[in-house]
Amino acid sequence: PQQSLLEALSLLSSDDWELKEKGLFNIKHLAGSHSEVLLCRLCDICLAVTSEVTNVRSKVSYSAIITLGELFATLKKDMDSEVDEVARVLLQMVSNSPEFVQKAASQTLGIMVENVTPARAMTALMDMGVKSRHIQVWKCAAELLLSLVEKIGVTKLAGTPRAERLAHMAGKLAQDCHRDTRHYGQKMVKMLLNHQKFKMLLEQSLSTPDL
């Protein structure tokens, strides 16, 4: 396995896209069969795979995204340290790629949210997703944030330093011009309103009189 990993990394550094694809396939295979081997070089592996996400060949890009999904699914919280960079690149792909690549990026972000430490994923989504003004990115970030709010629970979130920012963001999403994003935002606001602290924060952040 150690040897396979070195081979996979050297294939990834090749200029030939077919070899890159082979390298990605090998890493995906290793994640399924010998995940412990990946842990000692996790940073290098994630860097190599993530840099292929933006490959101009959509086939390679797609393979890299699927491979990242496999890494999140098998390594779970061990991937916490990679969340910020991976989320940034995947959200970028949600906005300007062929449809099948966009779909894969959304799916892998979903796998990420399911498997890493929820607070890490939430911070990354609030940092990256919101900086973008792209409709698809906002929609994707809103959907994932809603699932994280459900997962972590409103009471627990109220006691974190992220509470104010989350309330502000939920309020913003709930008023978005895009219907789906608005739907996720409104669901989030409804959940947050069940908690006194969030109710207060939302009232501060939303100037709407009907809250």
Keyword list:
single chain; 211 residues; mainly alpha; 13 helices; elongated; microtubule binding; CLASP_N_dom; TGRM2 protein; ARM-like
Could you explain the architecture of this structure?
This is TGRM2 protein. By secondary structure, this protein is an all-alpha fold. The protein has a domain at 137-211. The chain has helices spanning 2-12, 17-33, 35-39, 42-53, 58-75, 83-95, 99-115, 118-128, 135-152, 154-158, 163-174, 179-192, 196-205. The protein is elongated, with a radius of gyration of 19 Å. The protein starts with a helix and ends in a 6-residue tail after the last helix.
Summarize the model shown.
The chain has 211 residues and is mainly alpha-helical.
